[in-house]
Recover the amino acids of this structure.
């Protein structure tokens, strides 16, 4: 009986190891990501003057937005001015919006339009990294996964593909184990009704522990900051950036809730 129990426990351990390895494959760090700054600010579609940023802080800026509506994929390219220091690290971001009033059909043509625009933006990067910001419903996840796969297949191998992710996608609702992106950036803000419990959980475990979600993290200036072990931090501000706002962010302890900046 004791021998049988030992064999059973060993079998369960082996099964768990196989499940963990298949669910969380280890990916080598893309060289372009290794050369990217450890901190970047997100610059949304609004006028931004970021020439004051420290030289070791990069800018991930929305270069275009694609609106998926019905059978259409409408592209709106950045019109707001963006001022950067000459040597600032630039990561162009393609933001994709999905119409809820007229849900998209999620056709191959729409996926191809997204890929086309992201490849166009990649030419604007000076650090060989481009980012896709695309939040989807559960039923739309296969389309997002296919689109990311198509982009990665068409993108020059020297260019890294970063994608943002909802916090839930990197927690209990994890589904990104096979995603073709080189970097996943879970957003530890705007986490819904359970945000306080999720924030406490992330703080306790030191951030996102899934293999595909542990290399980067996104914060917002108007929500709680956490001391986490993720290597790269992205910062979102609901208002235009300023040197004072950045300094206040830097001075805020990461385990407390900051005042409105």
């Amino acid at each position: 009986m004791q021998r049988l129990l030992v064999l059973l426990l060993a079998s369960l351990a082996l099964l768990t190891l196989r499940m963990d390895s298949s669910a969380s494959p280890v990916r080598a760090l893309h060289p372009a990501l290794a050369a990217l700054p450890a901190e970047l600010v997100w610059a949304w579609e609004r006028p931004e003057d970021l020439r004051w940023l420290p030289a070791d802080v990069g800018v991930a800026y929305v270069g275009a937005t694609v609106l998926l509506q019905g059978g259409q994929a409408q592209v709106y390219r950045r019109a707001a001015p963006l001022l950067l220091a000459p040597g600032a690290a630039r990561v162009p971001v393609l933001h994709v919006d999905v119409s809820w009033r007229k849900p998209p059909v999620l056709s191959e043509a729409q996926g191809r339009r997204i890929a086309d625009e992201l490849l166009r933006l990649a030419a604007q990067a000076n650090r060989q990294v481009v980012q896709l910001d695309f939040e989807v419903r559960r039923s739309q996840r296969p389309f997002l996964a296919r689109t990311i796969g198509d982009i990665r297949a068409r993108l020059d191998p020297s260019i890294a593909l970063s994608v943002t992710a909802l916090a839930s996608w990197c927690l209990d609702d994890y589904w990104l184990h096979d995603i073709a992106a080189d970097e996943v950036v879970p957003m530890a803000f705007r986490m819904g009704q359970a945000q306080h419990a999720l924030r406490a959980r992330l703080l306790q475990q030191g951030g996102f522990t899934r293999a595909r979600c542990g290399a980067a993290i996104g914060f917002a200036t108007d929500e709680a900051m956490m001391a986490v072990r993720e290597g790269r931090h992205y910062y979102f501000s609901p208002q235009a950036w300023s040197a004072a706002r950045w300094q206040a962010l830097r001075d805020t302890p990461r385990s407390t809730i900051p005042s409105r900046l």
Observations:
- The chain has one domain: 38-251.
- The chain is about 30% helix and 25% strand.
- The two ends are 64 Å apart (CA to CA).
